[in-house]
Amino acid sequence: MEHLSRDVAIIGAGVTGLTAATRLRAAGRSVIVLEARDRVGGRLWTDHIDGQLFELGGQWVSPDQTALLETLDELGLDTYSRYRDGESVYIGPGGTPVRFTGDIFPASEHTQAELVRLIALLDELVAATDAAAPWAQQHAAEFDRISFRSWLEQQSDDAEARENISLFIADAMLTKPSHSFSLLQALLMAVSAGSFSNLVDADFILDKRVVGGLQQVPLRLAEQLDDADLRLGHPVRTIAWSEAGATVHTDDLEVEARHVIVAVPPNLHSRIDYAPPLPRLRQQLWQHQSLGLVIKVHATYDTPFWRADGLSGTAFSPYQLVHEAYDNSNHGETRGTLVGFVSDEKADRMLALPPAERQQAILESLAAYYGPKALEPVVYYESDWAAEEWTQGAYAASFDLGGLTRYGALQLEPVGPIRFGSSDVAALGYQHVDGAIRVGRRLADEILS
């Protein structure tokens, strides 16, 4: 058993943990980062599948993500815009694909009017919500006890409008059915991106990508640490703590530290044994947070054939198995790649199928948008983060009904020398890399102060 001593022990080599580590080290503190996986990056992972480069996890950069943009600049990483020239495709309840340009998809005059009204209403509620303390919202108690679906049903008699508004929060972001989370949780998701309108605008929220993949952020942060200060393949088993400090145990390493940062998703916090046990409400908190479920689908073709057909690659429908899809072709490649997403209860059904049947069903959904050429990719891959032992879902954790007002503030409080944080508890940039950076900075500054 190896014995070490550090000012700060950090559990998790994702963006939050590595941001905190580099910030603390720059301030003269000694650190060690302990990571269960054999790689850094957490929910960021760029890999080659059958010779094709795919971003298996997070990948997008949007204009409001100033902490991420600052970090990209500091690390010398370049970005490029997502391809978006041409027409988008929408499939309504009748199943017919329709091409369009602009922000509002083709629908009846009533549906379009309801969409505009609901977006404006949500923007108004979002403007009255503090991303750092949504539980302090004037109507927080009321808003946290009604599901997003029930609230939408109260607001509009137009089912198509409701389904599309729901898509932007439930399917596309929280990756949970809209009956399972509150209106307040939906408002937090929107305010973390600046407004509900920003979530609706794919050209804003899915603006740019990093040349070579977004995992380069944690990889380059990790390069600033010595080998002795970053240990991969070291899942933490126990944290023995008191007000004076803690001892962190892996299978073959023991680290004495004045402070500990647990920088992993909340659903993994209970994988660690704490001695003494953590306060009862902290243990209750984790039982009311859970990750969503989404399959990220990558399909690469010899050419981006949809561009020749006059399509941007942007496609969506709450009635399709693949609820949204985009041109995801890599910078400088002649091949074309589509990325699509299958979430929540639709993902349940797909994961119950044999792989070949699941692939066929998903490709048929892509073909509904792009035509029969979508059925024949040269490389196909599904990112299934629910199957990852050290993640178990995507994209991030959210609370069940009533959980945000009951436990939201508590999740930000330390327990003795232990602090918890990840993109799952971010205010601005919630569940994005931008939020992970912001939380990493905050945790480091709390320790330094």
TrEMBL record:
One of its GO terms (molecular function) is oxidoreductase activity. InterPro entries: Amino_oxidase, FAD/NAD-bd_sf, Flavin_amine_oxidase, Flavin_MAO. Pfam families: Amino_oxidase (PF01593). FAD binds at residues 16, 35-36, 236. It comes from the Bacteria. Residues 16-448 form the Amine oxidase domain. Its cofactor is FAD. Substrate binds at residue 341. Keywords: Oxidoreductase. Coiled coil: none annotated. SUPFAM superfamilies: FAD-linked reductases, C-terminal domain, FAD/NAD(P)-binding domain. The keyword Endoplasmic reticulum does not apply. Belongs to the flavin monoamine oxidase family. PANTHER family: AMINE OXIDASE (PTHR43563), AMINE OXIDASE [FLAVIN-CONTAINING] B (PTHR43563:SF1). This is Putrescine oxidase.
